[in-house]
Amino acid sequence: MPINIPKKLPAREILENENIFVMDVERANSQDIRPLNILILNLMPEKEKTEAQLLRLLGNTPLQVNIKFLHTASHESKHVSKSHLEQFYTTLEEVKKSDFDGMIITGAPIEHLDFEEVNYWDELTEVMEWSKTHVTSSLHICWGAQAALYYHYGIDKFELPEKCFGVFRHQINHPTIKLVRGFDDEFAAPHSRHTSVSEEQIKSCDDLILLSQSDEAGPFIIISKDEKHIMVTGHLEYDAVTLGQEYQRDCSKGLDICLPEHYYPNNDPNKRPLNQWRSHAHLLFSNWLNYYVYQETPYKWD
């Protein structure tokens, strides 16, 4: 089944060129089925890239999915046009009375700040609090995962001695849990962050399960025991070239940045990197949509 997105969203052409089935509102309304309504709080600066990455994964399931994009009203985005936000995004105030089957909160390049120093932290905590009664299951990515661990479970992030940057091997701790159904015992995933969270604190929290971790990158997939919150500290949604683009960006700024680890063939930045995580990205998103959203959400919200 297709993903339902606005006709003029720039990501639509990208997805159609990749032969991903997309649908517009008119056709979706003609089908007598109950679609899933997913809210995406996009905190990334280059919003259009993130839109395409997430929609690519959400569109590859047997479920019809309606997407609504959310942005923070208290923060002015500098890397996306005002017209794009006005046409395709909404704010919490406009959706407060609505219910959503699932929500995604993305990462954001603000790890150097304490959570309370982020200028939209109060608004983000309002979203996370609102989600407790208006969202069936929430998927939090990278900084969004760290923010969720801090707000919901009191687990703070800490600064790493050097950036966790590259593609790392991960192991599965609980292979019978539905979120990792179909995963290999060991799999690759990209990371790009300056901070991490404590494996010990996660394991000692009665409300959380550490599903997957990496010897090099630390905790990766964490799920709450009530299945309302899934925290992924890396970026399975990334394209093959995304880490390379980040590396070139930082080099052009004169920043002290190392090559992303285990990324370029033979550590040669002139060679095109291979996507080693695509299948597990699709598995994660399809498992989340199926087992934690579709199977759990009410057909009709009260």
UniProtKB/TrEMBL annotation:
UniProt cross-references to Gene3D superfamilies, sorted A to Z: 3.40.50.880
Coiled coil location: none
Primary location recorded for the protein, binned into one broad class: cytoplasm
Site entry: Important for acyl-CoA specificity: 111
Cited Pfam families: HTS
Alphabetized InterPro entries for the sequence: Class_I_gatase-like (IPR029062), HST_MetA (IPR005697), MetA_family (IPR033752)
Transport listed as a keyword: no
Catalytic residues identified in the record: 142 (acyl-thioester intermediate), 235 (proton acceptor), 237
Family statement drawn from the similarity comment of this UniProt entry: Belongs to the MetA family.
UniProt function note: Transfers an acetyl group from acetyl-CoA to L-homoserine, forming acetyl-L-homoserine.
Record protein name field: Homoserine O-acetyltransferase
Organism this protein belongs to: Scopulibacillus cellulosilyticus
Name of the encoding gene: metA
